[in-house]
Specification:
70 residues; two-stranded parallel ribbon; 2 strands; 27% strand
Length: 70
């Protein structure tokens, strides 16, 4: 399919990265022990952001705020 020159030029212009915030939450000690702790969640979120062209602006960790004790 043919694209006009202006459409081709528009497609070549670099787009600024999208901005992202990361919220990580651990609601139990068992969740941390199973390898799903805050660091693991942050790492996976950062990898996702990078792979999708997002720039992480801030990380908000939340530890055991749901009242869970297990």
């Amino acid at each position: 399919m043919y694209q006009s020159k202006s459409t081709q030029a528009d497609a070549m212009v670099a787009q600024p990265p999208r901005q992202a915030l990361i919220y990580c939450r651990v609601s139990s000690r068992a969740q941390e022990a199973d390898g799903n702790g805050l660091q693991s969640q942050e790492t996976r979120c950062r990898e996702f952001a990078t792979a999708n062209g997002h720039e992480v602006m801030a990380v908000f960790p939340d530890t055991i705020t749901g009242g869970g004790t297990s």
